[in-house]
Amino acid sequence: MKFTVQFTFFLILLIYYASFTNYELHLSIHILLVPVLIIIMAILGLGMGMVISSFTTKYRDLSYLVTFGFQLMMYATPIVYPVSMVKGKLLKVLLLNPMSGVVEGFRFAFLGCGEFNLGMLAYSATFALVLLVIAISLFNRVEKSFMDTV
User: Fold this and answer.
1) 123 by DSSP, 3-state: which?
2) pTM of the entire predicted model
3) Which of 47, 104, 116, 145 could form a disulfide with 135 if both were Cys (CB 3.0 to 4.6 A apart)?
């Protein structure tokens, strides 16, 4: 729900700036990938949520660490800066983040800048699916003892 509201505001602001300023929209055929990008994001969120909820039933303080960790991972995702700004070994580390391909896909589809690489998107999708399978098996294993630990 939160993403829907934020995405709607983004589209409204994008249309506003295109209409009332001299900003030129750079929409491309890649805009058709937006539903795929949203699905990959949803699968990543579901998988991470299931893994974290499985562990926080036993380890209560993990929720504080997860909050800090996700804020830290925000800087490891090319949101404020494009992937093309990063070079060398740091680029390889940056591309290990599965959200890098998704964010770059959104940037390329709506703003026409950044790098769109199908390999990055395939890595993100594969990572999301593998994470979801692991999360489902972990959640099913821990689910049996939820009531004992809660």
Assistant:
1) helix
2) 0.83
3) 47
Q: Is 103 exposed, middle or buried (0-12, 13-18, 19+ CB in 10 A)?
A: buried
Domain parsing of the chain, residue ranges = 52-144
Per-residue confidence band for 37, with pLDDT thresholds at 50, 70 and 90: very high
For residue 11, give the nearest of 104, 19, 114 by alpha carbon. 19
Spatial distance between the Cα atoms of 94 and 77, rounded to a whole number of angstroms: 7
Q: Do the beta carbons of residue 101 and residue 33 sit within 8 Å? A: no
The 10s digit of each residue's pLDDT in 53-87 is: 888 887 878 888 888 888 887 777 777 777 878 88
Quick: pLDDT tens for 91-104. 888 888 888 889 88
Tokens of 135: 């999360």
Q: Could you tell me the maximum CA-CA distance found in the chain, to the nearest angstrom? A: 61
**Residues in CB range of 73: below 8 A, 6 or more apart:** 97, 99
